[in-house]
């Protein structure tokens, strides 16, 4: 590790890395010296374009896009095994893939509930399970799970999402205690409202209301989140584990 390249030589796996917060993490991890395998789900061309751009910018590092469906146990295992095959060493897992299906609970369909729980919470099992033992055996590494302010505070029209992200935080704290003695840290990052496709889907009048709940009256950027994720992925954060850290500009829900 150098001051400029705190992730030099580290192998990172990022789910949902083709856009939004995940893509910002992929970019910053490469800029900080890491090799990165990232998952995409629906948009192969976007993933390929990002990988080509970053491959040209960092020709001595690996940047590999792989298909992943994190809500499916078999698909997630295939992704994890393939990801390990592309890396000389594996040090960091960023569980970032997520979806929202905002609606009042009274109107929520079983499918909406399952999609949200499957992608945001089941993925903690499906992706982490096949990637855990390499970190434990190596006696070192970091797992960073992307939660949400919604999981900390509860947000109306997000009952499934709040439940899933609260689950992510519980999972994070329990796993941190299980494997702390093996030198592996496990932390959650809880973004508030960040400018990505996810928040672009919010109607304009609701967006203005949400901004009024933030002291600086502005959404954060994916980079604001990526900086914390990459810090937690580095040795600089080796004594931080079992935490859920909010990146929300002081959002008061
Ligand atoms: N934006 C916010 O304000 C905010 C706030 C709090 C928490 N978060 C959390 O931050 C994370 C990233 O959110 P974002 O705003 O960057 O979202 P986004 O722009 O909508 O991107 C979501 C990412 O997840 C991937 N994905 C979706 N379903 C998947 C599946 N079944 N299997 C594998 N990958 C899947 C997508 O891949 P494809 O594009 O290939 O489909 C995409 O890369 C999520 O966990 C989200 O819950 C976001």
Automatic annotation (TrEMBL):
One term of GO molecular function: 3-oxoacyl-[acyl-carrier-protein] reductase (NADPH) activity
Gene3D superfamilies assigned: NAD(P)-binding Rossmann-like Domain
Protein EC: 1.1.1.100
Protein keywords: Oxidoreductase
All residue ranges annotated as the Ketoreductase domain in the record: 10-197
InterPro entries registered for this protein in UniProt: KR_dom, NAD(P)-bd_dom_sf, Sc_DH/Rdtase_CS, SDR, SDR_fam
Enzyme class, UniProt record, top EC level: oxidoreductase
Protein name in UniProt: 3-oxoacyl-ACP reductase FabG
Organism: Streptomyces noboritoensis
Gene that encodes the chain: fabG
């Amino acid at each position: 590790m150098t001051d400029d390249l705190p992730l030099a030589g580290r192998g990172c796996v990022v789910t949902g890395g083709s856009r939004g917060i995940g893509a910002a993490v992929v970019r910053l991890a490469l800029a900080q010296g890491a090799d990165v395998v990232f998952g995409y789900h629906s948009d192969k061309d976007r993933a390929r374009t990002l990988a080509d751009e970053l491959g040209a910018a960092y020709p001595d590092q690996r940047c590999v896009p792989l298909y992943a469906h994190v809500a499916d146990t078999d698909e997630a295992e295939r992704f994890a095994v393939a990801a390990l095959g592309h890396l000389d060493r594996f040090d960091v897992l960023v569980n970032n893939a997520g979806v929202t299906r905002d609606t009042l609970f009274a109107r929520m369909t079983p499918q909406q509930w399952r999609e949200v729980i499957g992608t945001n919470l089941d993925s903690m099992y499906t992706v982490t399970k096949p990637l855990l033992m390499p970190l434990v055996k190596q006696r070192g590494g970091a797992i960073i799970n992307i939660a949400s302010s919604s999981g900390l505070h509860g947000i109306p029209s997000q009952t499934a999402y709040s439940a899933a992200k609260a689950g992510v935080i519980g999972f994070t704290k329990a796993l941190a205690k299980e494997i702390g003695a093996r030198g592996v840290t496990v932390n959650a990052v809880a973004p508030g409202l960040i400018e990505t496709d996810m928040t672009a889907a919010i109607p304009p009048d609701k967006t203005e209301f949400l901004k009024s709940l933030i002291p600086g009256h502005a959404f954060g950027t994916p980079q604001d989140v990526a900086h914390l994720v990459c810090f937690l992925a580095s040795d600089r954060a080796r004594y931080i584990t079992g935490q859920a850290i909010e990146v929300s500009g002081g959002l008061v829900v």
